């Protein structure tokens, strides 16, 4: 997989927030940090993603697998 830029990552996270899949929590303590959690709507997608992952693992050529993509 190619590395993702900070800009693209931020845009993707914002799209997931806007879709109601992820929520952002800002912590105003030192050091400052942010955490993201799945909403109930986001959690409802876990079984779907698991099935897609299982299908991919069953159909990928093992010689093309450079790292574990799903766990």
Automatic annotation (TrEMBL):
One of its GO terms (molecular function) is DNA binding. Keywords: DNA-binding, Transcription, Transcription regulation. The keyword DNA-binding applies. Residues 1-64 form the HTH hxlR-type domain. The keyword Transcription applies. InterPro entries: HTH_HxlR, WH-like_DNA-bd_sf, WH_DNA-bd_sf. It comes from the Bacteria. This is HTH hxlR-type domain-containing protein.
